[in-house]
Amino acid sequence: MSEISPEVTQALPAGLSAIAGNRDLITTKEYAQIWNVADQTVRKNYCETGEAYGLKPIKIGNRLLWSVAQIAEKLKGVV
Question: Per the domain annotation, does 1 fall within a domain?
């Protein structure tokens, strides 16, 4: 996976930055941690609606990966 540019990293909320490190994409388990829900809840929402908490994941093989940049934008709208 590629790394996030320094400009985007500085704009990330502290908690998200700690979870994501320098990655562009995070796992479903990490995404669930951000919203303080079980990872199975995220999977169920995705299965039923094609998204979870307003974001659509990137599916690679059997895994759902979530964009850190999109999560940061979503959190800025919520906070």
Answer: no
